[in-house]
Amino acid sequence: MRTRTQESNNDPIRQAELILKLYELRREAVMREARSYVGGEFMPQSVDELVDIVTAGTRQSGFVLQVYGYWDMVAAFVPNGALDAQLVYDT
Question: Is the dihedral of CA 13, 15, 17, 20 positive or negative?
């Protein structure tokens, strides 16, 4: 059963505004650099290597955490009613 808050969050205009804000975050300079790293040279060959990279405290570990944290946040919006899954997929 949906609550009143969830129903109001499904307003298409509000969802579009949130998508635009998320897009602005993706365009931020450090996020662009982080996305470039994660989508490029970041290719751990094992779970251990992933853990080593993420826990190293380097700029690259920050990139991984930033990108994964961003997408974790976006994904949380869907089951909580802030964004429609199809809208996230389409954009």
Answer: negative
Share of residues in the chain with pLDDT > 90 (%): 81
- What are phi and psi for residue 18, nearest 5 degrees? -65, -40
- Domain extent listing, the chain: 4-90
Contact 11, 81 (CB under 8 A): no
Confidence class for position 54, pLDDT limits 50, 70, 90: very high
| Claim: this prediction has a pTM higher than 0.85 | no
Tens digit of pLDDT for each residue in 36-53? 999 999 999 999 999 999
User: Both tokens of residue 82?
Assistant: 């802030």
Instruction: Kindly give, in sequence order, each residue whose CB lies less than 8 Å from that of residue 60, ignoring residues fewer than 6 positions away.
Output: 37, 42, 53
